[in-house]
Design goal:
The protein is an alpha+beta fold. Helix content is 45%, strand content 13%. It has 15 helices and twelve strands.
Length: 438
Amino acid sequence: MSDHLTRNQIDGYGRRALPAVELLPVADHLEACDSCRRQIERALDGDTAFFSLKSEVFGETVMPSALAGRAHLSVEQTAQYVDDSLAVEELQIVKDHLSGCEHCVAAVNDLRAFRAKVAPDLGREYQPARVASETRWHRYVARFSSLLPRPPALVWGSALTAILLVLAGWLIWRATQGDEKKPEIVKTTPSPTAPALTPVVSPTGPPEDPAQMVIAQLNDGEGQVTLDRDGNLSGVDRLLPAHQQLIKRALTDQQLEKSPLLAGLARPEPLLLRSGDNEGSTFSVIEPIGKVVPPDRPAFRWSRLAGATGYTVEIYDEKFNLVLASSQLTGNSWTASQSLKRGELYSWQVKASKDGQELVCPRPPAPQAKFRILDRANATELARARRNHASSRLTLALLYTQAGLLNEAERELRALQTANPNSAIARRLLANVRAMRR
């Protein structure tokens, strides 16, 4: 290739009209040439190119102003989120972003659909060829990621990067298929004078019993979920690819990971929540403590204090700013009068009025009574799963565990164990969730 790209190459790259044979040389050149990259950036025209491409692919009209002033997920974050390979802290950040960004959600869904489409072909039994394909795939993904402009030079939406990744990956995959050489078949004619040789037949054992290939099997709802030694999962065709991966990992590891949403929500011992007044009463907060709460208007409960004439509930954010307080109450329960922010961490306390004094529970040195409101992304995913797969106890249990809803996860796993009384896997998963609660 010459010192710089020709005008036809720049225009073809900007219009996504370059043939596959020229795409990779142009990409290599752009990686090393700032001058040509700036011309490409001007040709692509940022958000205008993105929305033009999205309108062509999806048949919808979206105004560029929808992305104004907002940051989006990077290519690496989108790919790692789809592959479930994000670190715990970054996973929470990505989920919080997805809860309010429709463009990044669309990019994640597009990339998941592409992965599901090419996954069967990438999983060929020819191990050397598959490893080579995966190596080239990751190399080209890294190369295309490095070519994407960084702000403020050119702002790309995450949906555009995902679409470019899909197109590039598809071209690369097709190219690698052409690299595989077909085996050459040589026909030979035996000499008429050569003596006939008796072929040597290698002894083979009897065919393996299919039942011995199965490493995990569970009755789940109206069907049966099975995992064999080769990693093939059956009985889950109706589920989303992401949910299938959750099930496969749980049946393989037989161990569930604690949700990052439970971080900082260790449940204190009940004795530490006593008011500590001179009469030694058992005035304490009861619920919610050390858990994730699904509704954004949670219900609060506490024990009664003998002789108390009223109670007041106060809710604080992570910086201990008062965000909501109840009026004077005579009972020992109260539901929040307004919605709290999803995904946020809160603490709460009760003030009891007795004999002209005000007693607070919990009070130092007792730890704060903390809880978290379920984030919007997990709330939406759980609502869809309950609507479409209500009979799949295993799917719901894994999603509840992922969202930090341990009470709900334990309920589903108890039902799964009832349907599989002799299953060691069902017992281990249930014991795992109970240990998280403790």
